[in-house]
Amino acid sequence: MPLALKEEEILRGRYKIRERIGQGGMGSIYLADDLRLAGRLCALKEVEYDRALPQKILDEAREQFLREATVLARLDHPNLPKVSDFFSNDLRDYLVMDYVPGKDLRELMLEARRNKTFLDERLVLGWASQLADALSYLHNLEPPIIHRDIKPSNLKITPNGLIKLVDFGLVKILAPDEVTITIIQGQGTALYTPLEQYGGDDSHTDVRADIYSFGATLYHMLTNEPPADARKRFLLPESLPPLRQVNPALTARTERAVLWAMALHPDERPKSMEALGEVLFGTRDFPTGPLPRRFLQRSPWDFVFAPPESTLVLAAGGLILLSLIITLMR
Q1: At what angle are helices 207-223 and 121-139 packed, to 10 degrees?
Q2: First to last CA, the chain
Q3: Mean pLDDT value of segment 158-172
Q4: Which range among 156-170, 274-288, 293-307 shows the weakest confidence by mean pLDDT?
């Protein structure tokens, strides 16, 4: 296993390591001083490669890193940390980003849980609005960018209340007619990952994967309970209780919008962050009556799409599951 960088080690003659502040499956994140710009702190995202990889695959992976780093360095949005540099050092590649101070949303959620309370819905929706704006920005670029690892611990809140979506380790650039190699061997965090993102085939992953993760993140933030992962829900739809069953103070609109985003089949989710935002933030009418009881026994998108007759509900559910199976087997 490659050794971690040492405290006060200097990379590229510019970045002096303070400490390791995060660690993932194939790399670490370090806090460093920028020796060229006095007083500036930065975060170094390290990507380590498996030395056992065939040279051709290794070369392709590193070329992919350079292409994606170049794209990330051009991003400019207030809810995204600025990527200011990238470089290689032996079999490690590095992204240099702004260091974002403050707590992440997972910490705030856990504090609320310890206090036996819930985060205020309006507060969470305020954060969600900022995140939705950042995702809309990424998804509407040419080519679009999918983050693919949205979760509470990747959302930091600065002292002035600004949300920052951090950690671009699993980013995917949707370049047409191009096979994308995932830089880091991993497919996101299971609790927030849609079915189509499991496995090594990225061909069915698009912006709706981020929409699912966005919904799952809100579910966790609003209920203090981790959502059942997509594989479990596929087998046991009742394993995901409605949000208001856990937190009765939530509005029906928020509950329905979150569960719409978390539909198992991508075709049953909103097609864009803008479409979801119109419903979630109340700029488009959305039914607000009680959830039908059949929701608890069937797929979570039935409340939006299924007709009232039980025969049609079962038929629609069967077709959706069959379509999902066929999609994932291609």
Answers
A1: 170
A2: 36
A3: 80
A4: 293-307
Q: What are phi and psi of 151, to 5 degrees?
A: -165, 165
Q: How far is CA 59 from CA 55, 65, 112, 182, in A?
A: 6, 10, 46, 13
Residue type, 192: Y
Write the pLDDT tens digit of every residue in 40-62: 999 999 988 887 889 998 888 88
Alpha carbon distance 316, 307 (integer Å): 9
Q: What is the pLDDT of residue 275?
A: 95
CA distance 202 to 200: 6
pLDDT bracket for residue 319 (50, 70, 90) = low
Peptide bond into 143 cis (omega under 30): yes
41-48 and 83-89 strand pairing: unpaired
Identify the CA nearest to 198 among candidates 96, 19, 8, 189. 189
Give the pLDDT confidence of 176-201 residue by residue, as tens digits.
Answer: 444 333 333 334 578 999 998 876 55
How many other β-carbons are positioned within 10 Å of the β-carbon of residue 322?
10
Map tokens 């992440």 to a residue: 104
The single residue listed with the structure tokens 């079915």 is: 195
| Cβ proximity of 87 and 98 under 8 Å | no
Q: Which domains does the chain have, with CATH numbers?
A: 10-98 (3.30.200.20), 105-329 (1.10.510.10)
Catalytic residues: 149
Is residue 181 within 8 A of residue 96, CB to CB? The reply is no
In angstroms, the CA 78 to CA 164 distance is: 8
Three-point CA angle 20, 171, 41, nearest 5° = 35
Average pLDDT over all residues of the chain = 82
